[in-house]
Amino acid sequence: MLIKRKRGWEIPESQVTPENIFLNRRRFLAGAGVGLAAVAAPEPAAAFIFNRDGEAETEAELHPTSDLYPVQRNLRYRVSRELTDETAASSYNNFYEFGSHKRIWRAAQRLPTHPWAVTIDGLVEEEMTLDFEDIARRMTLEERVYRFRCVEAWAMTVPWTGFPLSKLVEMARPLGSARYVRFETFMNPDMASGQRQTWYPWPYVEGLTMAEATNELSFMVTGIYGKPVAKQFGAPIRLHVPWKYGFKSIKSVVRISFTEERPVSFWEEIQGSEYGFWANVNPDVPHPRWSQATEELIGTGGERVPTRLYNGYGEFVAHLYDDLQNEPLFM
Ligand code: MTE
Questions:
Q1: 168 CB under 6 A from ligand 1?
Q2: What is the pTM of this model?
Q3: Could you give the domains of the chain?
Q4: Hey, what's the torsion of the CAs at 320, 256, 66, 70, to 10 degrees?
Q5: Nearest CA to ligand 1 atom 5
Q6: Ligand 1 centre from 120 Cα, in Å?
Q7: CA 132 to chain centre
Q8: I need a labelling partner for 134 at 20 to 30 A (CA). Which of 95, 152, 272, 329 fits?
Q9: Strand pairing partners for 183?
């Protein structure tokens, strides 16, 4: 991961256009390549965007699952922190497909998310390709407030909507020989300019063990802040594993494969000594180039708090690693 960039909390709030204002004003990118047209006049009504043929798309066409939101919060997963301000979280993202800096939210609006297919393959009884909308409607959605801790020592606390990954694993019917779950993001360099940077090993890949994937905390995210997940957060479907560094939480998933071999993830391939497969949060194991003892809460103007082992989720996950003590669990 790049470290010599200006960090988001150093950008004055006044320089950041809140996403909702951006959407409501219909100021979509000119020449975005997928037909999003610029409209100069401010438009306070519900957001319209323009498709490839210049026809207006309604919010319902853009987010066909909007009617599913908001859903009830699951209070089993409580956090003692304040929720991160939505605008702050929505304008400070890592999504290297759209640039290797934090202000990718605007570029990420180019991502076409409807229709969206997710292929399930590898060691399964039967391979299948599912439509995202079908998945979202088939699953029972719930809201969970989870802490999120990036390896770069910033953190946020947001209300995610989604369903347990274990439910998807159940639906996939993996064979007994499956030991890992491998996730893959879309590949479309014409649309996502970051993917034209050929020194990165695209597409973005992540992986979990079967025990991690079926742990109750592992969550497939379809929504955030009570509505369908915004593109910069990894629409229309992403992973969130709250006890691991944020790079494990892969965005905009198109393929989920069950494997016997441990997958090599995107960052592991780039620099395995700094971004390993396990990547469990631990304040006492520094990154080779910086301390992991504390984290900065985005949207607070710089408040730092102590980082917690397994990001505070040890009671749910510590047992997963009892027999793996010789592995670099915190790297
Ligand atoms: N997924 C994809 N496909 N591409 C990425 O660049 N970045 C990861 C993770 N998932 C990334 C990704 C990293 S490094 C982090 S910290 C989180 O997404 C950031 O999630 P957020 O933008 O929702 O805060």
A1: no
A2: 0.86
A3: 36-318 (3.90.420.10)
A4: -10
A5: 95
A6: 21
A7: 16
A8: 95
A9: 206, 256
